[in-house]
Design a protein that fits this description.
Elements: H1 2-10, H2 14-21, H3 28-37, H4 41-46, H5 56-59
């Protein structure tokens, strides 16, 4: 997920993103993991004012399809 990594770096790194999301200091490791795994879609949608730089399909981790009846 090079795009997610680039976006997090542009926003000042995992610590700065965690501060913007209100999950600092415990969330720094979580945000750091997003650099490799992608930003969870629900986080991207919850904070569009922070992650508006890239389209969602470039930075969000894939959502698995769930069969519903």
């Amino acid at each position: 997920m090079k795009k997610a990594e680039a976006l997090i770096n542009e926003l000042g790194g995992p610590a700065q993103v965690a501060k913007r999301l209100g999950i600092y200091p415990t969330g720094v490791a979580r945000v750091s993991n997003w650099k490799k795994r992608g930003i969870p879609a629900h986080v991207y949608l919850q904070y569009p004012h922070i992650f508006h730089t890239y389209p969602a399909h470039e930075v969000c981790r894939e959502v698995s399809k769930v069969n519903t009846l």
